[in-house]
Each structure stands twice: as C-alpha cells, then as structure tokens.
Amino acid sequence: MLKIINDNSKKTANEIHSRLRIFNRKNCKYFIEKAKDNRDEYEEKTQNFIVYDNDKLVGGAVGFVEYNWYFLDLLYIDEEYRSQTIGTKLIKQIEEYAKEEKLTGIRMETWDFQARGFYEKNGYKVFAEIKDCPPTTICYFLKKEINS
C-alpha cells in the first residue's frame, strides 16, 4: 500500500536528489556529453567577486557556476559606495569570467524594489516574474546570454 509521509531528514532528501541525478544523467543530452569528459556537471563551482576599499568590505557579487551558467545569487554594494559604478564593474567582471569559462550566460533574480533597471541597463532581459513572492513584491528573473 502506498503512503505519503512528511520526512524532512537530509538522508531521505539526498536519496531523492541522487535518484533524480541518475535519471537526468541517463536522459539529458548535455549530461551524457559531460560524462564523456568525465565531469560531474551537478557539482556547482562557487565564484564570488568581493569589493574592498582598503581593508573595508564594501560589497560584492556572490554566485556559482552550474549547468554551464553563472548563477548570480547576490549583488550588494554599501549605500555610501553606490553611484560609483562599482556594480557595473562587478557585472562586467562576471561577464568576462563567463566569457573566459565559455559559459552560456548569467542568470539572477531581483525584487521590484531592488535593481531591475540596473540589470536591464547592462543588457539583461526579464524572462519570468512571480508576483507576491514575498507578498506585495514582484520577483523578476533575468538573464544575459554570453557565449551562445
């Protein structure tokens, strides 16, 4: 008899992840090709770009590479350092990294009160949005293809 239960253990979650990865490796052309190169494309590679003013941390970009894309998880600049083109320099450095690594592109999300206009000014396009995530806020998903 089948049953569905709540199980929040890491062990069970890891087992489900493992089974899905095995399925994906057998059925996704991209993963099949990567396996020939003996590379595990499920292993994400952290790649952060941090900004200091002398020894003072003033911001940075935090992200990782997975599936041949750079996932920009966070980009933040202290308010007193904004309007000094630091964000643009960070984005350009991430794009250079993506070109050098021959990544397909860069993806990120931002909320309606954050930096959508900044990303669009730098050539990023909204490809999806979710309203009320969190409530009263719109979450935008943006991307820029680099080596397609």
Structural commentary:
- The chain is α+β, with helices and mostly antiparallel strands and 148 residues long.
- It contains four helices and seven strands; from the N terminus they run H-H-E-E-E-E-H-E-H-E-E.
- It has helices at residues 10-27, 29-36, 86-100, 116-121, and strands at 45-46, 49-53, 56-66, 69-77, 105-111, 125-131, 138-145.
- Strands 1, 2, 3, 4, 5, 6 and 7 form a seven-stranded mixed sheet that branches.
- The protein is globular.
- The model has no long low-confidence stretch (mean pLDDT 92).
Give me some keywords for this one.
single chain; 148 residues; alpha+beta; seven-stranded mixed β-sheet; 7 strands; 32% helix
Portion of residues within helices? 25-40%
| Oligomeric grouping of the chains | single chain
Alpha carbon gyration radius: 19 Å
Low-confidence stretches: none
In short:
With 148 residues, the chain is of the alpha+beta class.
Summarize the helices and strands and which ones pair or pack:
Elements: H1 10-27, H2 29-36, E1 45-46, E2 49-53, E3 56-66, E4 69-77, H3 86-100, E5 105-111, H4 116-121, E6 125-131, E7 138-145
Parallel strand pairs: 4-5
Antiparallel strand pairs: 1-3, 2-3, 3-4, 5-7, 6-7
Helix pairs in contact: 1-2
